[in-house]
């Protein structure tokens, strides 16, 4: 579904990047697969997300979504192709317009791509609200009157409105309380099972992806240092950085809770 | 750590500031020169008529035109005008046929004295009223001060001077109605010019000081056991200084402009009155000189406030915050990074 | 939580209309002047010159016998016409130029920004005077002279707004959805950019009206015989002493319009910046408009509870560093007081770390800071909190400010959450720590104080304290700033360290180091701590005992191992279930709690968690359950059902934990 091959990108003008932020990154995401990308702040995770979604042009390498090079497209083709890739951001409050109600926000992508008429769009909006487990009456509210978890659900629903085949999630649960985070993660798993989209899940939290992702890629200073199935990474990390990250990640089941039957 | 030494950066900041200011002044001089292009009528004809004492002949006009170099292309004239202006030579007044420069220099002293006096009024009244407003929580006094300040900024200077003349000069006979002789004649002009500026300043002081005192670092200082006086002096006022300075700079600049009205009303022989005469008579060289000097003073006052603000608060220096943020350089990550490279 | 700003917004509008009354009158009178005016404003009648107000001439006549009231009304007309024209030109041109520059970015933006900078820094009235000086008076020249500089602020405001949004995720999201340029600018950029422009315009009306009047007063604006307010004043000047009616009405008219415009602008601007929702959500955060001085941080009107005698001389295991009993905190909310923390009791023992755990809005930060007078001044704290035992014991609820300063910074150190905000940006780290050292009474001469400061910074795990001391807060990383806060908190060699979310928003590796620093302080210096955290995994690494908070109350507390391994309260159970556990199969679903977090301790009559609780019965909704001791001493839970107690719930609780 998604192929990132040898991508290098950074800040600076034109093709010659002064400071590469990510270097030679290669990741593949299959349909229906969640791949976790883990790294600390400033390691280039977000730049990679922007490259994958086509918001940022790489200086080397290719990004293919469903076999099509994202950066080779222009104008109308690009906008049409964008239906395939959608993104969920860390702070939904910043990505939702404060002036639009939830209903309007969800109808926005449909209107942009001129999907259906007013009636079918409104039906689709109801369907989307239901899909992410929101009450229909939430549709009349504006983002300021939603809780953090509800906002993130709206953001996910909007990203899924055009039935993308690839979902990029950039720290989608970082700002949420654990109990809300658990619900949003469950929702993502359910939706992935139902809709079979591929998902690149970007986070700083190794614990979160280790329960969520099928595969994990660990990123440091713009490079992928280790990549593999989740169990291999968490149980037998090879790279010292992965080990350091694992050791630093607070994990409930270690240490004191020796009596826990799940250990 | 993201920067080396405060001084080096501050030096660079001042240099950048100076270049910037020079640019703004240059742009203003260009605009001032462009007034000629906007002017209706032919300056040469006016000057020739002034010299002749009656409507001039075409030959006389042509002679003046050659003398003033009006036939040259505009850029050449601009550069010549600018070069002369830098030496204090602004050409001849169209109405009196006398050099403008010395006249402007003479009158500048009067205006500067007026501005200095009213600046003192504005600072003393504005800051004290503002600090009182910031420290008071609620109550009648706070509301009264706030309304008074807003009212002071809303009253037109010319009407305020009418009121003062009516009450102080005509009814109570405390001060003369106009003129510039003796201390008593200074009271009304300085009050008329200084009080509105004080109103603006007090609002800004009240709001910014209040805001600074509501910041989390004030609570942190309480947690360290710091006393109220220390908090106002160390955490409150320095953090409020930026906006206060920039408004003060702007206010002093505005006083220069306000002087135009006040000098006119109270009959002071200052630059402002000269400006109004020149504008009424469409005396272009005089207008240009007055605009350049007063506008330059306004801009300098503003820019000085900016540079002071930048020196107090390193974050407000332009360009500082736009630098890309590096990753946290705390021990572990840094060590890993050093190990990698 | 999402408290509706709806009705306050309505009231704000009513007030705004009241404030704007003179402006509205100005507009109506300006439009209807020909209808309202009793006479021709330019008709001379020398026989009726300088008549005082009378039924025939309500505001008297001027030296040429013209009706003053009519002239006043027509003055509004001209003033309004010029103001509208200038506003229309500068608002349209300014907003368009600014928005386009902000959206395009790059060199176009740089050029436009420079031009705006220059124009804004020019003295507007001077420009107007100069332009009229060369062009001559008249309405068209007046509009030109005023528009020439008044567009720039609008351009600056619109540019800043649009440029700010250009790089925002909001626009990225729209681009990803495939939105075109026109849609983005028209529907998503211009409306939010126009709003602050309109707010500015409300002040600008006053500026322009004043400008027109001033220019006319100087004889450079509207030419006679047309009536204009400034013009009327200058014409009446020779007759000031005898004909007072010439001096007052025009001046009052100008002042009223300008005053209303200023007031309206100030109100609208304040309304825009007021973070009302934020305040509702986090009552513990700083509020604007309140003094933070400790002198006014009135705590409680009720007499503080006496120090419980039993706590004074106990055996070592009964010694407490902090003993809190029945602590409640309330804030004023629309005329009444609303509790955010209710009936909290907890204690901290020497050399132990107590963790207050809870989700957003559970009141954990409020509960931790309340004993030390660090809440907003309008917070009311009741109950008892005793620091230390024996002769040094101090009641913390309700002491005088001076006494407070003997405790804060000396016997208690505090580390706050947002290290970027709690450090004064203008002072170096060294100045902060020096102050803390001096407040603690350990300061000496400057160099000696600094030596102590550097020692403290080293103790907090900063390897190069001298360099850190010279740095400004914004030059340090979040982890380093947090260490600096720890150094300050340690200045008084306190018995108790209170840390509010000390590691949130930090990278895990940095977080691990900070937790290690805190653990070392406990192990090596036997320092007691209260740690506030939302992260159970972090707490599990550090704490000796835990108090779980929900909606302003403690629902379960006890030794760490007991709470984690044999939890009793269904909410604790739910929190533990929500923590990700590596080792589980990828895609394993979390067990989740239905519903949304409760907000306050008094919102529900019975157990606050009952609406979300799988075990809730009719009994649960009647009164809040008390904290009851479970099998092991010190492990207490506030649930009627006690699913964790083996006898009560069979096997369910014990093996599910």
List the helices and strands and how they pair.
The complex is a heterotrimer of chains A (263), B (341) and C (657).
Chain A: E1 2-11, E2 19-29, E3 34-38, H1 45-52, E4 60-65, E5 68-69, H2 75-81, E6 85-88, H3 92-95, H4 102-112, H5 118-131, H6 148-160, E7 166-170, H7 178-195, E8 198-203, H8 206-212, E9 215-220, E10 223-229, H9 230-235, H10 240-248
Chain B: H1 6-38, H2 43-52, H3 58-68, H4 74-86, H5 100-135, H6 140-154, H7 157-171, H8 184-213, H9 216-223, H10 228-266, H11 271-281, H12 284-312, H13 331-340
Helix pairs in contact in B: 1-12, 2-3, 5-8, 5-10, 6-8, 7-8, 8-10, 9-10, 10-11, 10-12, 11-12
Chain C: H1 6-19, H2 21-36, H3 68-104, H4 106-120, H5 124-135, H6 139-166, H7 169-177, H8 181-217, H9 229-236, H10 244-273, H11 276-281, E1 322-333, E2 336-348, E3 353-357, H12 364-369, E4 380-387, E5 394-395, H13 401-407, E6 412-415, H14 419-422, H15 429-439, H16 446-459, H17 465-470, H18 478-489, E7 496-500, H19 508-525, E8 528-533, H20 536-542, E9 545-550, E10 553-559, H21 560-565, H22 570-578, E11 628-629, E12 636-637, H23 646-649, H24 652-656
Helix pairs in contact in C: 2-3, 2-10, 3-4, 3-6, 3-8, 4-6, 5-6, 6-8, 8-9, 8-10, 9-10, 15-16, 15-18, 16-18
Describe the structure.
Chain A has helices spanning 45-52, 75-81, 92-95, 102-112, 118-131, 148-160, 178-195, 206-212, 230-235, 240-248, and strands spanning 2-11, 19-29, 34-38, 60-65, 68-69, 85-88, 166-170, 198-203, 215-220, 223-229. Chain A is globular. Chain A has two domains: 1-84 and 164-263, 3-Layer(aba) Sandwich (Rossmann fold); 92-163, no CATH class. In chain A, α4 (102-112) packs across α5 (118-131), α4 (102-112) packs parallel to α6 and α6 runs parallel beside α7 (178-195). Chain A has a six-stranded mixed β-sheet, sandwiched between helices. The longest helix of chain A is centred in the C-terminal third of the chain and has 18 residues, at 178-195. Chain A starts with a strand and ends in a 15-residue tail after the last helix. Chain A contains ten helices and ten strands. Chain B has 13 helices and no strands. Chain B has helices at residues 6-38, 43-52, 58-68, 74-86, 100-135, 140-154, 157-171, 184-213, 216-223, 228-266, 271-281, 284-312, 331-340. Chain B has a domain at 112-320: Orthogonal Bundle (MetI-like fold), CATH 1.10.3720.10. The longest helix of chain B is centred in the C-terminal third of the chain and has 39 residues, at 228-266. The radius of gyration of chain B is 26 Å and the shape is flat. In chain C, β4 (380-387) and β5 (394-395) form a beta hairpin. Chain C contains 24 helices and twelve strands. The chains are: A alpha/beta (263), B mainly alpha (341), C alpha/beta (657). Chains in contact: A-B, A-C, B-C. Chains A and C meet through β6, α4, α6, α7 and α8 of A and α7, α8, α19, α20 and α21 of C. Chain C: InterPro entries: AAA+_ATPase (IPR003593), ABC_Ni/Peptide_Import (IPR050388), ABC_transporter-like_ATP-bd (IPR003439), ABC_transporter-like_CS (IPR017871), MetI-like (IPR000515), MetI-like_sf (IPR035906), Oligopep_ABC_C (IPR013563), P-loop_NTPase (IPR027417). Chain C: The chain crosses the membrane at residues 12-37, 78-103, 115-136, 197-223, 243-264. Chain C: It is a multi-pass membrane protein; Peripheral membrane protein.
């Amino acid at each position: 579904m998604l192929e990132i091959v040898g991508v290098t990108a950074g800040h600076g003008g034109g093709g010659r990047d002064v400071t590469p932020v990510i270097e030679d990154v290669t990741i593949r995401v299959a349909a229906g697969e969640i791949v976790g990308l883990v790294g600390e702040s400033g390691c280039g995770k977000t730049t990679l997300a922007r490259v994958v979604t086509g918001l940022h042009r790489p200086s080397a390498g290719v990004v293919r979504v469903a076999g099509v090079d994202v950066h080779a497209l222009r104008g109308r083709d690009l906008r049409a192709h964008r239906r395939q890739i959608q993104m969920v951001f860390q702070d939904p409050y910043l990505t939702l317009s404060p002036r639009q109600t939830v209903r309007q926000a969800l109808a926005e992508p449909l209107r942009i791509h001129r999907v259906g008429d007013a009636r079918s769009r409104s039906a689709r909006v109801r369907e989307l609200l239901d899909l992410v487990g929101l009450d229909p009456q939430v549709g009349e509210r504006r983002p300021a009157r939603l809780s953090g978890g509800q906002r993130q659900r709206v953001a996910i629903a909007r990203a899924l409105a055009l039935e993308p085949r690839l979902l990029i999630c950039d720290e989608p649960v970082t700002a949420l309380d654990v109990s809300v985070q658990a619900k949003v993660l469950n929702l993502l798993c359910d939706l992935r099972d139902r809709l079979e989209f591929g998902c690149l899940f970007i986070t700083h939290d190794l614990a979160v992806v280790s329960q969520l992702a099928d595969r994990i890629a660990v990123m440091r200073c713009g490079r992928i240092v280790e990549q593999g199935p989740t169990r291999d990474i968490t149980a037998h990390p090879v790279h010292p950085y992965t080990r350091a990250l694992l050791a630093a990640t607070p994990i409930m089941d270690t240490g004191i809770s020796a009596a826990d039957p799940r250990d | 750590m993201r920067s080396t030494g405060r001084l080096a950066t501050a030096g660079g900041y001042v240099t950048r500031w100076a270049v910037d200011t020079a640019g703004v002044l240059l742009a203003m001089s260009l605009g001032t020169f462009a007034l000629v292009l906007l002017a209706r009528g032919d300056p040469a004809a006016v000057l020739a008529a002034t010299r002749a004492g009656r409507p001039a002949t075409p030959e006389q006009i042509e002679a003046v035109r050659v003398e003033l170099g009006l036939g040259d292309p505009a850029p050449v004239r601009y550069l010549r005008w600018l070069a002369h202006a830098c030496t204090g030579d602004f050409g001849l007044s169209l109405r009196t046929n006398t050099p403008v420069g010395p006249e402007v220099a003479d009158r500048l002293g009067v205006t500067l004295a007026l501005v200095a006096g009213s600046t003192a009024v504005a600072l003393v009244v504005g800051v004290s009223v503002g600090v009182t407003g910031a420290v008071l929580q609620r109550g009648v006094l706070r509301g009264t001060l706030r309304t008074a300040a807003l009212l002071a900024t809303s009253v037109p200077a010319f009407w305020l001077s009418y009121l003062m003349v009516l009450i102080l000069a005509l009814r109570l006979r405390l001060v003369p109605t106009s003129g510039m002789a003796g201390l008593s004649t200074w009271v009304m002009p300085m009050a008329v010019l200084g009080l509105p500026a004080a109103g603006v300043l007090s609002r800004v002081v009240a709001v910014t000081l209040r805001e600074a005192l509501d910041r989390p670092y004030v609570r942190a200082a309480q947690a360290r056991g710091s006393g109220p006086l220390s908090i106002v002096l160390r955490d409150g006022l320095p953090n409020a200084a930026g906006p206060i300075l920039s408004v003060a700079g702007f206010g002093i600049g505005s006083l220069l402009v306000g002087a135009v009205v006040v000098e006119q009303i109270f009959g002071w022989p200052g630059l402002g009155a000269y400006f109004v005469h020149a504008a009424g008579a469409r005396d272009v060289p005089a207008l240009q000189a007055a605009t350049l000097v007063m506008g330059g003073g306004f801009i300098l006052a503003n820019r000085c406030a900016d540079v002071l603000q930048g020196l107090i608060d390193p974050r407000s220096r332009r360009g500082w915050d736009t630098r890309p943020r590096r990753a946290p350089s705390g021990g572990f990550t840094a060590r890993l990074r050093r190990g990698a490279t | 939580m999402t408290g509706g700003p709806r009705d306050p917004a309505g009231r704000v509008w009513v007030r705004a209309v009241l404030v704007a009354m003179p402006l509205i009158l100005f507009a109506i009178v300006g439009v209807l002047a020909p209808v309202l005016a009793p006479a021709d404003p330019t008709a001379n009648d020398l026989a009726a010159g300088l008549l005082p107000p009378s039924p025939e001439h309500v505001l008297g006549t001027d030296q040429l016998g013209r009706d003053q009231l009519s002239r006043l009304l027509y003055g509004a007309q001209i003033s309004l016409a010029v103001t509208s024209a200038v506003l229309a030109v500068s608002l349209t041109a300014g907003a368009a130029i600014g928005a386009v520059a902000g959206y395009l970015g790059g060199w176009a933006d740089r050029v436009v920004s420079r031009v705006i900078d220059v124009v804004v820094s020019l003295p507007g009235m001077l420009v107007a005077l100069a332009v009229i000086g060369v062009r001559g008076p008249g309405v068209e020249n007046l509009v030109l002279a005023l528009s020439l500089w008044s567009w720039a602020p609008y351009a600056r405001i619109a540019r800043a707004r649009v440029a700010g949004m250009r790089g925002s995720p909001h626009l990225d999201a729209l681009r990803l959805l495939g939105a075109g340029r026109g849609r983005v600018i028209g529907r998503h950029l211009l409306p939010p950019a126009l709003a602050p422009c309109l707010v500015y315009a409300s002040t600008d009306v006053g500026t322009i009206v004043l400008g027109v009047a001033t220019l006319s007063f100087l004889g450079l604006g509207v030419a006679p015989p047309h009536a204009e307010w400034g013009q009327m004043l200058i014409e009446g000047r020779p007759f000031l002493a005898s004909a007072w009616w010439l001096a007052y009405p025009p001046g009052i008219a100008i002042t009223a319009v300008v005053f209303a415009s200023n007031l309206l602008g100030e109100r609208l601007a304040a309304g825009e910046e007021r973070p009302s929702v934020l305040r509702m959500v986090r009552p513990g955060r700083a509020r604007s408009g309140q003094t933070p001085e400790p002198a006014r941080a009135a705590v409680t009107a009720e007499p503080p509870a006496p120090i419980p005698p039993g706590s004074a001389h106990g055996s070592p295991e009964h010694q407490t560093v902090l003993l809190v009993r029945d602590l409640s905190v309330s804030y004023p909310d629309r005329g009444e007081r609303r509790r955010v923390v209710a009936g909290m009791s907890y204690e901290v023992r020497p050399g132990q770390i107590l963790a207050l755990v809870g989700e957003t809005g559970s009141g954990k930060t409020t509960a931790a800071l309340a004993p030390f007078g660090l809440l907003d001044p309008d917070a009311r704290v009741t109950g008892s909190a005793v620091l230390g035992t024996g002769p040094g014991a101090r009641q913390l609820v309700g002491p005088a400010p001076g006494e407070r300063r003997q405790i804060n910074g000396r016997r208690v150190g505090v580390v706050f959450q947002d290290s970027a905000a709690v450090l004064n940006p203008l002072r170096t780290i060294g100045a902060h720590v020096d102050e803390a050292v001096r407040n603690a009474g350990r300061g000496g001469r400057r160099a000696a104080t600094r030596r102590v400061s550097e020692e403290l910074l080293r103790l907090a795990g900063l390897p190069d304290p001298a360099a850190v001391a010279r740095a400004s807060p914004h030059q340090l990383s979040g982890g380093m700033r947090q260490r600096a806060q720890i150094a300050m908190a340690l200045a008084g060699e306190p018995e108790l360290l209170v840390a509010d979310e000390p590691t949130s928003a930090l990278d895990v590796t940095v977080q691990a180091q900070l937790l290690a620093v805190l653990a070392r302080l406990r192990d090596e210096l036997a320092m007691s701590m209260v740690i506030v955290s939302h992260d159970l995994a972090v707490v599990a690494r550090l704490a000796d005992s835990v108090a779980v908070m929900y909606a302003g109350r403690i629902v379960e507390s006890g030794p760490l191992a007991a709470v984690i391994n044999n939890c009793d309260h269904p909410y604790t159970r739910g929190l533990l279930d929500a923590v990700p556990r590596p080792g589980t199969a990828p895609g394993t679903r979390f067990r989740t709690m239905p519903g949304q977090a409760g907000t306050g301790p008094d919102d529900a009559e019975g157990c606050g968690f009952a609406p979300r609780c799988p075990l809730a019965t009719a009994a649960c909704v009647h009164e809040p359950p008390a904290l009851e001791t479970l099998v092991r001493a010190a492990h207490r839970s506030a649930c009627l059902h006690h699913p964790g107690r083996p006898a009560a719930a069979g096997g369910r609780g014990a093996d599910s934990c």
